[in-house]
Specification:
Elements (H helix, E strand, L loop, with lengths): L2 H19 L6 H27 L2 E4 L3 E4 L6 E16 L3 H5 L5 E18 L1 E12 L6 E11 L4 E9 L4 H4 L12 H6 L3 E10 L3 E8 L22 E12 L17 E13 L8 E14 L2 E14 L4 E14 L4 E11 L9 E12 L5 E10 L24 E11 L1
Antiparallel strand pairs: 1-2, 2-3, 3-4, 3-18, 4-5, 5-6, 6-7, 7-8, 8-9, 9-10, 10-11, 11-12, 12-13, 13-14, 14-15, 15-16, 16-17, 17-18
Helix pairs in contact: 1-2
Length: 420
């Protein structure tokens, strides 16, 4: 607040004091009270002026935030809600689950998350805490918890718990997918969240992420999707991912959607993962090697994505288990708000492990964007061409696919997403 405004405020206060004292005899006590009142008001005005000038900020710039004027402190607060309805139809459920029920349907709150991120003391020193409410019990559980520092030369060092830099489909946020849920291929080969240290480097057309961690517990080593690799963390694990930007901007690949008016963008990525896990109580040492190659092409209102993923598990005293698969996906806007998409993914499991070593899904659907990803409605149809029982198939309720000893299982999924 300026000095002139303070003087005007003081004058107003004295004027009010004079009115209040009109009709009363003037005394030194009255004068002292007026001076005390004026001093108190001026002190309060100066305090308020100091707070305003310090620039403490709060608001919404795409995220709710609190921050300091110097930019050294910032807290972003946000969340995600995905509410969906699933209708599943399959034959021969009695032979698999012991119930003659070919239709399974119902509502599900798939994801309810809160996240807190920002920086402290220095814009380069950042943090993130993301937690999700359990779908069954409602308990709040940590997902991503990490701290990092961004160097001026493009290097970024991060440590904590977060997703390993392996498949692109997994590292793209669940709020920015095309379909209601990620593919079966990704659920089979994704490394999930690990705990460790990651060093990243970003350049104009090239970027790299390398991670040293405790390793992943998620991959198909014993015939079931997302099975435990070991009861304890591995001795150590190494993950590396490289990406080359042929055209476009890196930010375009934070999602699979390509909005109308977007420029042409092409990116190629590849990743390797290796871990050695020592089991206790006389159990064998297992070794995992996984690899992937993907390509993404985005342009004015349409997108294409393809990926190949494989893994080899060397079990001490047992067979070497080799699995691989591929995915093709694309989307196109038919209006400013409506986007159609399709996906085809196949997984080929090792026949030493899987009774049915091939599993294929085709997904067709549409997105209606109310406020882009912040508020959108998605509906899709998933068609499993092969029987899921004994196959490299993730039959979790979140995906909508269930155990079946017959071919041609279908799931219709409808979801509303809100991100704030």
């Amino acid at each position: 607040m300026s000095h002139t405004k303070l003087v005007m405020l003081a004058g107003a206060a004295m004027g009010l004091g004079g009115v209040a004292l009109a009709g009363q005899s003037w005394s030194s006590n009255n004068a002292d009270e007026v001076r005390a009142l004026v001093a108190e008001m001026m002190n309060d005005a100066q305090t308020r002026s100091s707070l305003l000038q310090s620039g403490n900020t709060a608001g919404h710039d795409g995220k709710f935030f609190l921050g300091s004027a110097d930019g050294n402190f910032k807290l972003n607060v946000g969340g995600q809600i995905q509410f969906r309805y699933i209708y599943n139809f399959r034959d021969d459920s009695e032979a698999v689950i012991g119930e003659d029920e070919d239709n399974t349907l119902g509502f599900q709150t798939r994801r309810t998350k809160l996240w807190f991120n920002g920086h402290i003391f220095d814009p380069n020193l950042y943090y993130n805490i993301t937690g999700a409410f359990n779908r069954n019990g409602g308990s709040f559980e940590a997902e991503d918890v990490y701290v990092g520092y961004k160097f001026d030369n493009g290097m970024d060092l991060r440590w904590g718990q977060f997703k390993a830099p392996f498949t692109r489909e997994e590292t793209v946020n669940s709020t920015r997918q095309l379909a209601v849920e990620r593919s079966n291929l990704n659920s089979i080969f994704s490394l999930g969240r690990v705990q460790g240290v990651q060093l990243a480097y970003d350049a104009e057309q090239f970027r790299f992420k390398g991670m040293f961690s405790d390793g992943s517990e998620l991959f198909p080593s014993n015939g079931s999707a997302n099975s435990d690799f070991n009861d304890d963390p591995s001795d150590f694990a190494l993950t590396g991912r490289v990406e080359f930007l042929a055209s476009g901007d890196w930010n375009q690949f934070d999602q699979f959607t390509s909005w109308r008016g977007s420029s042409n963008a092409l990116m190629v990525g590849a990743a390797l993962h290796w871990q050695d896990a020592s089991r206790e109580q006389g159990r064998p040492n297992n070794e995992l090697f996984a690899y992937t190659l993907d390509i993404s092409w985005m342009a004015d209102g349409w997108n294409l994505y393809g990926a190949f993923v494989g893994s080899s598990v060397d079990v001490d005293g047992g067979p070497t288990v080799d699995n691989y698969g591929f995915l093709l996906q694309g989307g196109v806007f038919v209006s400013d708000d409506w986007e159609l998409f399709a996906r085809w993914d196949m997984v080929f499991g090792d026949d030493d492990v899987f009774a049915n070593d091939e599993y294929t899904e085709i997904t067709l659907g549409a997105n209606y964007y109310i406020h882009k990803h912040a508020a959108k409605f998605t509906v899709d149809l998933v068609w499993a061409l092969d029987e899921s029982a004994g196959a490299p198939a993730n039959t979790s309720t979140g995906r909508g696919m269930l155990p079946s000893g017959e071919e041609d299982q279908f799931a219709i999924r409808a979801q509303f997403q809100l991100v704030f």
